Amino acid sequence: MPRSGAEARRRLQQATLELFQQKGFDATTAAEIAERAGVTERTFFRHFADKREALFDGEAAFREALARAVVSAPPDMSPMDALLHAFRSAEPLLEKNRPFTEPRQKIIDATPALQERVLTKTAGLIAALGDALRQRGVEEDTSTFAAQIGMATLSYATHAWLADPTLTLAASLVKAQAALRRFSS
Amino acid sequence: MPRSGAEARRRLQQATLELFQQKGFDATTAAEIAERAGVTERTFFRHFADKREALFDGEAAFREALARAVVSAPPDMSPMDALLHAFRSAEPLLEKNRPFTEPRQKIIDATPALQERVLTKTAGLIAALGDALRQRGVEEDTSTFAAQIGMATLSYATHAWLADPTLTLAASLVKAQAALRRFSS
DNA sequence: AGCCATGGTGACAGTAGCTGACAATATGCT
DNA sequence: AGCATATTGTCAGCTACTGTCACCATGGCT
Q: What's the farthest any 2 CA atoms get from each other in chain A?
């Protein structure tokens, strides 16, 4: 029954999260996930390219939101300032997804295969940020480098932000920027 | 015939490189590689955890060499200077491996699965550099951040260095450091 | 109402990556 | 020679993932 398509996808995501939590990534088969979602294994692989992707479905939207924020940042901003501007604008989105990303992180921390996938997602994000910087007129060579530095800064800031709920992301970013200045001096 | 163990491993590496070049990563099976190396498929997986690892065999040695160089850098050096010191010391090793890494890079550029593996190798390198910095007394939080920034700097520098054979890696690193200062200002 | 194009799905078969268990054989030491 | 150890071969098996085709629900068109 091809109900809506999107419904089955949501059920598959939910089933994936639950089973990975209960039995771990390696011990849960794609067939199990499909069965719990009420579809066939074949349908699972129609919605997600592989078993890992089911855990990273919202990532594309986040990436595109960040890229748009970089492009639409005030034109007189330096590359790094444009990135930081975009990161600050993402704080509400990150805050909203917090309850969902927290259990997911625990699963990821427990399985190397998922950590590997996180790295490619991060690389994709860096590439998108580099693209966005290029649309702002930043040169080809330096845009990727700046995007990498920016992403490292964001990771550093979000780490501290997640660990200490009293912090705001913006404040955490300021600290990270200060640490970066210290290194490069 | 359990000849030497290391011999079979070398043959497997060689066969892997050749077949990936000829037919591409996806089109070559582990059984084919094993057959060309004169062993069984089972033996292939005893030497390498998966099909990708056969392409990244020397990486552990490179990582450890870099980490040692960071630890043994003059104690009064700043974290970033210690990293740059280690990177400069690796130039001969990189130069020596150049004819081997060049065809490998072409294969990697053509196959996403291998690019994903490169990212985990890079992450491992960053972790090792962070560890080495901690052994120099750098604080837990900042060491990983510094290692990330350092790795981004090295990538940027090696890119330019590989593209222009008249450059030395040390000179390329100086330019990268200047770019970094520009971003973080 | 009937019809058709579209798209999601089930069913089935098949390939290949990867693993566990056990036997067989070569190597080094005594 | 004899023994311990390391490496490999053999076999059986699971599961991730893919190609193909038929099926059926939905929405628009006449």
A: 62
Residues B88/B170, Cβ–Cβ less than 8 Å: yes
Q: Which nucleotides of D are covered by protein (CB under 7 A)?
A: 6-12, 15-20, 24-26
Q: Is the distance from CB of B151 to CB of B143 less than 8 angstroms?
A: no
Do residues A107 and A137 share a domain?
A: yes
Answer yes or no: do A120 and B117 touch at CB < 8 A.
no
> Cβ distance A66 to A31 under 8 Å?
no
Residue B175 lies in a domain: yes
Q: ∠ at Cα B89 (B88, B95), nearest 5°?
A: 85
Same structural domain for residues A119 and A62?
Answer: yes
Give the Å distances, CA to CA, from B166 to A1, A94, B150, B169: 64, 46, 23, 10
Whether the Cβ atoms of residue B158 and residue B169 lie closer than 8 Å to each other: yes
Q: CA A171 to CA B144: how far, in whole Å?
A: 20
Specify if A1 maps to a domain: no
Q: Which of B116, B117, B184 sits opposite A180 (nearest CB)?
A: B184
**Nearest CB neighbour to B179, from listed A122, A145, A179:** A145
> What distance in Å separates the CA atoms of residue A164 and residue A14, rounded to the nearest whole number?
28
HSE-CB at A145 with a 13 A cutoff on CA atoms is 26
- CB-based contact A23:A54 (threshold 8 Å): no
- Cα B161 to Cα B95: distance, rounded to the nearest angstrom: 10
Nearest residue to A181 (alpha-carbon basis) of A141, A143, A153: A153
Q: What share of chain A is helix, strand, coil (3-state, %, to 5)?
A: 80, 0, 20
Q: pLDDT in tens for each of the 185 residues of chain A?
A: 545 778 999 999 999 999 999 999 999 999 999 999 999 999 999 999 999 999 999 899 999 999 999 999 999 999 999 999 999 999 999 999 888 888 999 999 999 999 999 999 999 999 999 999 999 999 988 899 999 999 999 999 999 998 898 999 999 999 999 999 998 87
What tokens appear for B54 in the block?
Answer: 């056969």
Q: How crowded is residue B64: how many other Cβ atoms within 10 Å of its Cβ? A: 12
Here the CATH number for the domain that contains residue A26 is 1.10.10.60
A74 shares its domain with A163:
yes
